[in-house]
Design goal:
320 residues, alpha/beta, Elongation Factor Tu (Ef-tu), domain 3, Rossmann fold, Ubiquitin-like (UB roll), 3 domains, five-stranded parallel sheet, 8 helices, globular
Length: 320
């Protein structure tokens, strides 16, 4: 398993049980060097045992951070990452992490911010709410969870936002949150930011169908459907830096093809969600199947996520 390039040494300064099935880790620099700054919505890769790499949003926001805070919900079923953190990571442990990357940036020029979070999807959203408070920006939040005991940061958000924060718990309300009503009064220039399970994402997409697409943003922590990299025709993959040519078969991803050729390329999720495997496109037309590139980035065809995306053209050249 290849680790992301340019990883940092981090120490787990503290571990806190935030809610049922949710632990918070505060990470500090292990070598005394300043931690890189980040913008709200950013995430880091965390390198775990057995070569696992998982992505977690940064829940804190500080212009000059002295620590990174992540909250990890125990997934059911777990692919290994969340269970490993819950079972084996404690205060004092050392971890390798990536520098922060941001596939879910906040637009500083929006006239207002409307946040929708479901479950552990609150982690990038609370960072954005904190940024809004620091910059005196108008914001409101709907935070939904199946039950109150699973809602990390609920009390802190209620104190931070007052009546701008609506907490919804399915078991207490007897139904899921009414997203159509919450999003039915969007104003011109307001931006919507949503992070949560796929049914919530789809409901927000439906409720914002008449709002400008450029003003509606999503952060996914799981792919909405199985990766489709294996589908499609075979094509030639040219590697500019190494002057090699490979054939990507219809049943094999670009990443798998690179690995089979002995080429070590960074990756994380293998679902087109984390941007760890991004590669520069030199020639050819990509068939973008990821969930992180914006529409404008996809149209530009400058980069590709090699874990899931393919080629529309018969030949694709990458700067590898």
């Amino acid at each position: 398993m290849s680790h992301p390039p340019d990883t940092l040494a981090a120490m787990v300064a503290s571990r806190t049980e935030l809610a049922d099935g949710v632990v918070q880790l505060e990470l500090t620099s292990a070598d005394g060097r300043p931690l890189p700054a980040f913008e709200p919505g950013a995430h880091i890769d965390v390198c775990l045992a057995d070569g696992l790499i998982r992505q977690y949003s940064l829940a804190n926001f500080q212009p000059a951070p002295d620590s990174y805070t992540i909250a990890v919900g125990l997934a059911e079923p777990s692919r290994g990452g969340s269970k490993q953190i819950h079972d084996a990571v404690s205060a004092g442990n050392l971890l390798r992490i990536s520098r922060p990357r941001n596939s879910f940036p906040i637009d500083p020029d929006a006239t207002g911010y409307v946040f929708v979070a479901g479950g552990i999807g609150i982690t990038p959203i609370i960072s954005m709410a904190r940024w809004c408070e620091m910059n005196r920006k108008p914001w409101r939040l709907l935070y939904a969870a199946r039950r109150r005991q699973r809602a990390a940061y609920a009390d802190e958000l209620a104190a931070l936002g007052g009546d701008r924060v609506r907490l919804h718990f399915d078991d207490e309300a007897g139904k899921v949150a009414d997203l159509a009503t919450w999003l039915g009064t969007l104003r011109t220039g307001e931006h919507v930011y949503c992070c949560g399970p796929e049914p919530m994402m789809k409901a927000v997409e439906t409720a914002t169908a008449t709002h400008p697409a450029a003003c509606v943003h999503f952060e996914r922590f799981s792919a909405p459907e199985p990766p489709t990299a294996a589908a499609g025709h075979s094509f030639t993959l040219k590697l500019r830096l190494s002057a090699r040519e490979l054939t990507v078969a219809a049943g094999t991803s670009i990443l798998d093809t690179l690995e089979q050729a002995g080429i070590d390329h960074p990756f994380g999720c293998r679902e087109g969600l984390c941007r760890s495997c991004e590669a520069e496109v030199c020639e050819g037309i990509p068939d973008h199947r990821d969930y992180v590139l914006s529409d404008a980035e996809k149209v530009s065809n400058q980069t590709i996520m090699v874990c899931v995306s393919r080629a529309k053209s018969d030949c694709l050249e990458l700067n590898l």
